[in-house]
Design brief:
Low-confidence stretches: 1-28
Structural class: alpha+beta
Distance between the termini: 37 Å
Oligomer: single chain
Radius of gyration: 39 Å
Helix content: 55-70%
Mean pLDDT: 86
Number of helices: 9
Shape: elongated
Strand order of the largest sheet: 2-5-7-8
Number of strands: 8
């Protein structure tokens, strides 16, 4: 539960107990040129970020590029159909004189056209490995898209919780200022009765000034955190928004071993590298296959200007076999590069697995600490609240000095801030745990 409502109620109760009234200034209505704040829920923030994020758009473009690479690989096994044509004018026309007359070998003006169909019959691994490399690379790009999406969801949630923390910090600063103001009024009343020294009023005024400065600093921090959230979700910084209050999450069930196993099988970063290893291995096989023979079928049809020595139409079918004999080691070098590239990716995959394992263990430890810390912070608020009530009554009745009351007020404000920060830490640790174990799911599944 958020502290804003509870602290306001507590301040009101303290005011009644102290015999003073604390009247909150009325909020003026919006003028005609002011814009009403927009309610920005967490789900709205996630949806906006997923639809407008440049880094997510970049990842999606990479997926689309990978899909075209798959089409390119498949096209290597498809037939190729081509049409060519030419016009020829030559002078003089080649001819030969025979006893019975003159024979022209060509026409002065002639045209020719050819239709050719080329179909790979056997590529001996070229097409297969090219497709496998492109398809595995596309799978890697898709998992990379999922990783970017999960990072974006994590960042939005953290930024949203930061704004919540800033709002609570402002609320605590407002309560602290009200507390200092009541103390100042009480000191003035006691001085007027002759029950306290003038120093108490001067000290109260100094406390009021410090409380005002802390409130200004809290408001500035809230403005910066809000602008950061607006920037992530694609809204103009400075846009007036109101965020929703979020209930504290429950502590997740399970063991570190279960979470680690789940993370290693579901983390997009791991799956992306695993697919990249497969893609690089297929590229190594593709490069090695360049030394294999290949068989192509060529079908050609010709249509040209008829001459006494050449018919007007002709057809040809060719089964072409190509056998590479020596390329200077070019293919072997390319295959070696690809194979070493696959080894690099395998090492990166192993390093990523270790990193994921450590991230899960760190997240689990942070979870335990965060939930223990919030219980301690809640008890501290109860004790500080009671100590403040007693200190105010003692100072009012002239049984203590101002220093005792100021110390209780400072302890109470610190306890409230500690509880706010402890709540914020719970939100952060749960969000990071969900990210580390690949359970940070957006409100609507987004796929490239």
């Amino acid at each position: 539960m958020r502290l804003r409502t509870r602290t306001l109620l507590f301040t009101f109760v303290l005011a009644l107990c102290s015999g003073f009234q604390f009247v909150r200034a009325d909020v003026p209505p919006l003028s005609s040129d002011e814009v009403a704040p927009r309610l920005l829920t967490l789900d709205d923030s996630l949806s906006l970020a997923l639809s407008t994020s440049p880094r997510l758009g970049e990842a999606q473009a990479l997926v689309e590029r990978g899909a075209f690479a798959v089409d390119e690989a498949l096209a290597q096994g498809m037939p190729i159909l081509g049409l060519t044509g030419e016009y020829l004018h030559q002078e003089p026309v080649p001819r030969v004189t025979l006893p019975f007359g003159t024979l022209d070998f060509a026409r002065e003006d002639s045209i020719a056209g050819a239709l050719e169909l080329r179909q790979p019959v056997a590529t001996f691994g070229r097409t297969r490995y090219s497709f496998l490399a492109a398809d595995s690379s596309l799978e890697s790009d898709r998992w990379r898209f999922a990783a970017v999406r999960n990072d974006l969801v994590r960042d939005v949630r953290i930024a949203y919780h930061d704004v919540n923390l800033s709002d609570d910090a402002v609320s605590v600063a407002v309560e602290q200022l009200a507390l200092r103001e009541r103390q100042l009024r009480q000191s003035e009343a006691l001085v007027a009765e002759g029950a306290a020294a003038r120093f108490d009023v001067l000290s109260g005024q100094a406390d009021m000034s410090r409380a005002e400065q802390e409130l200004l600093a809290a408001k500035r921090a809230r403005s910066l955190d809000t602008d950061r959230l607006l920037s992530i979700v694609g809204l103009q910084p400075g846009t007036p928004v109101v965020i929703e209050e979020i209930e504290l999450p429950f502590k997740p069930d399970g063991t570190v071993e279960e979470w680690t196993s789940q993370a290693l099988s579901r983390r997009p970063e791991v799956l992306s590298l695993d697919a990249a290893v497969k893609a690089q291995g297929a590229r190594a096989n593709y490069e090695a296959a360049q030394n294999n023979p290949r068989v192509d079928l060529r079908l050609q049809g010709f249509q040209r200007t008829e001459t006494p020595t050449l018919p007007g139409s002709a057809y040809a079918a060719t089964l072409q076999i190509s056998i590479p004999l020596f390329d200077g080691g070019f293919s072997a070098a390319r295959a070696g590069q690809a194979d070493r590239g696959a080894e690099v990716l395998r090492k990166q995959l192993e390093e990523k697995r270790r990193q994921v394992t450590l991230e899960v263990r760190d997240a689990a430890t942070d979870l335990d600490n965060a939930f223990e810390r919030i219980e301690v912070a809640r008890r501290n608020v109860v004790h500080a609240t009671e100590a403040l009530r007693v200190a105010e009554q003692r100072y009012k009745n002239g049984l203590s000095v101002l220093v005792e009351l100021q110390s209780a007020q400072t302890a109470w404000s610190s306890a409230l801030l500690d509880q706010v920060r402890a709540q914020h830490q719970v939100f952060l640790t749960v969000t990071r745990w969900e990210w580390a174990t690949a359970q940070i799911i957006p409100p609507a599944e987004v796929s490239p």
